[in-house]
Amino acid sequence: MRYLTVLFTIMMAAALTFSCGKKNKEMTVQDFAKIDIEITTTDQKPETIEQIAGKYGYTLDQYKKFAEKVENDTAIQEELGKIRLGEQKNK
Prior knowledge:
By secondary structure, the protein is an all-alpha fold. 80% of the residues lie in helices and 0% in strands. It has helices at 2-23, 29-39, 46-55, 60-72, 74-90. 10% of the residues are buried. The model has no long low-confidence stretch (mean pLDDT 84).
């Protein structure tokens, strides 16, 4: 019985570690572009943005931080522009 308790505790700790680790992944420019393009067609409320970001595995805070990074980095802006242009050509 004690072994089952220890095994269960280890399994729960592992599950918690992996589930929390997925939300802390680094946002890429491609992911930001997907989220941003989808957000432009919505009401742009924080709840909606959070739902869309969650769909791609990110939090609202991660989206906002990357948006600030995009505003201050011209290289990221250029890459984002190329991605958006490619999306328009595909339509």
